Amino acid sequence: MKKRKKTLYGLLTCVSILFILYALVKNYMIDPGAEGFLSHKTGLKRQLNLPVWLNVMYVHVAFACMAMASGLLNFSTRLFEKSRKLHRINGYVYFVSVLLVVVTSGYMAPYATGGKISSMGFNVLNIVWPLITIMALVQIKKKRIIQHRNWMIRSYAFCFTNMLIHLISSLFHQGFGLIYVTSYTIGVYASLVLLLVIPNVIIRTIGQSR
């Protein structure tokens, strides 16, 4: 059981670090104007205020990376055993980061690629993620460690929303030849389903041991 957990945590660490580095380099160095991403946004019903949108996006990316990093750190058994105070403080950093990611995502949702249908998907994500995170907080306040861990696994999965959306949209766009807008919309809703299913598979895999 311990070996399985170490393997999963090692894999999670590699994926998280690589994605954080990719997000930071791409959004702040390679394409700070988001020209590649914005080129797919056609037929917007609302006028896009580019300077404001970009600033919101920078905040969104920064706190998304913060949530991913702090969440990863708090899954470390070594950190938990060494300093529960640090684990608790870092947990609140994660909680605040999630809220800021959701707020900024809420601003950008009306401008989502794919229009209103995609926007609705993001709005659902922006409701589900904080609710799940609040459930994790409620469980630890009640000293229910296993339940807290399980809800945190469910919450942390949403840190990979962007990665999953782009993987799925690329599969349908480049693999199956669908237009990008349709592929992106499929990616949004397929990600929502997977982000609710995969964590429960992981929870069953690692078992109910403390």
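Next protein, fold it too.
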Amino acid sequence: MVQRPPRKPPGRTPGKGSGKAPAKARLSADDWADAALAAMSEGGLAAVAVEPLAARLGTTKGSFYWHFANRDALIGAALERWAQTQTEALITELEAEPDPERRLRLLFAEAIGSAADDPLEVSLLATADDPRVAAVLSRVTERRVAYVARLFAEAGFPEAEARRRGLLAYSVYLGHAQLAHAVPATLPEGSGLTEYLDRSLDLLLMR
């Protein structure tokens, strides 16, 4: 049965002390990048604007200019942050599992579950005509397909066949992500979704 690995939600540790309100932590560049990604998931690149993001973060534009020269720099940092947290970090996490077939099932469940929960990936695909987005999407897609192909190769498939199956698995993932946000009623829920994911991997692993 496919089960998504647990992911700790981001958060800050509350301050300790005498009853006084803890000093507000200075926002980091990653805080701004995360806020920009949240805005992109809601309204695409057009939603990334400094003043609304400052209001979202409860700060001023001065904090923004401490970290970034301009809006384009923030967009670039946000896209790199997305590539790191949604691809490289997940791959690193999965490498703790020694069995390649089990890794495939965990990856499939986590990726599809995350895409269904968060519209950011679909939003980025919708803005792929922007050169900044296109460059990152191209790099991330190749990285993901290559990693999945490697797992199929480790599971015993010849290199060319592993690449084909890696690409097919990624196509299934993207199709599911699009359906989850466009017409979610077409997809199974609960135990039906688990069975659907298991069966999809069974077919992809069939020799």
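About the second fold: DSSP finds nine helices and no strands in the chain.
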